[in-house]
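A further point concerns the way the authors explain their paired sequence and structure data. Nothing conveys this as quickly as seeing an actual entry. An entry of this sort, consisting of the sequence and the corresponding backbone structure tokens, reads as follows:
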Amino acid sequence: MELLAVQPYVKVDKQIIDAEIIYSEENRKIYLYHDRLVTKYREFSTRDISDLSFRKMGDEGGLLYVHTIRGVFSYTVPSSPESFIKAFRVHIKKEYF
């Protein structure tokens, strides 16, 4: 299936080792296809997604929300996902336009 858009996101992991909090970041990507949205560990059918939204936090990035029939999933994005959300709304949820 044709790839419509890619959005980078960051997974932040917190571990406590010897009474010290250690943070680590892993750069990942969300892939949008006509029939599904895929992350490293999840896959959503586009039929199950009602919308995507974004809440800006800080200067550049924020949280990308994936609204599904199973709940809302959030992903920390380092930059605005405006083009990713637009691709979803134009190609998948055509009722927006």
The chain is about 10% helix and 60% strand. The chain has a mean pLDDT of 93. The chain has one domain: 3-96. The first strand starts at residue 3 and ends at 17.
